[in-house]
Amino acid sequence: MQNDWNDLQIFLALERAGTARAAGERLKVSHSTVSRRLTAMEERFGTKLFDRTPDGFIPNASGARILARAQQIEAEMMELERFVVGNDIRLQGDIRLTAPPPVTEYLLLPMLEQFRDKYPLITIELHSTFGQADLSRRDADLAIRFSEKPDDHLVGRRLPEFRETVYASPDYIAAHWDGETPIDPAWIGWHEDGPLSLRARTANFPEAPTDWRMPDLNLHARAAVAGFGMASLPCMMGDVMDGIIRVPGATSTNSYPGWLLTHPDLRRMERVRVFAKFLAEQIVARSDFIGGSAGAG
């Protein structure tokens, strides 16, 4: 059969995304192309592979039999690609880097121009997301992640400690503090508290209520600037934002450990190796900034 791997990519994208449009976005093709290729594949096999339901495409019994083999072929193709790409010694081409939005905006962007000036033939594709890219499938070449322990199949190095503390607008502090003594301040919090937010609230003003709940860290910061309440923010974010300052008496707390990670097959790719070394050195040089000591005075 011709184009077997391309057809299997269509099949896998549909199984993961659930709709032709979403699968097309994953593969950077139109949804009509996805539908047409699926129809051709089903005609070639002589059977339907998906049930079309209100919730999207669901593999039927025939599709389920193909799925395991398709995933195995995909893993083999990804391994082959990583082997070939990993032996690329040129200092040119694309590098995909993924990191959480506060890290991309406040830490990475100021340093990336320096790397581009030194290596103008390398293009950085920056993905700012809290989601985790699949490095085995080369959704990204490098990732900055925060966890107690990275996945066993990835390699890299631990980054300096990232810390956070509590911020509010000067007007809010003037209305809710008497010197170092808080007077009924309230939190801007999450819809559901996680371990980090609970740790921050336990360390600072544990009796304060949560008056506002918002799903996004940038919203927390903007609400604090607007005087809604106090917010626990990464020091590298809160210390440089206009309109907020550290609240009196607040201590800083550690975030999850930060890691700069890649797949072991890509360590041999020269541009990835050089970029990872650059990032690690630059982030270490900014330890005071990300650890909060630069803005503690």
Automatic annotation (TrEMBL):
Belongs to the LysR transcriptional regulatory family. Gene3D superfamilies: 3.40.190.290, Winged helix-like DNA-binding domain superfamily/Winged helix DNA-binding domain. GO terms for biological process: DNA-templated transcription. It comes from the Bacteria. This is LysR family transcriptional regulator. Keywords: DNA-binding, Transcription, Transcription regulation. Residues 1-60 form the HTH lysR-type domain. PROSITE patterns: HTH_LYSR. Transmembrane segments: none annotated. It comes from Litoreibacter roseus. GO terms for molecular function: DNA-binding transcription factor activity; sequence-specific DNA binding. Pfam families: HTH_1, LysR_substrate.
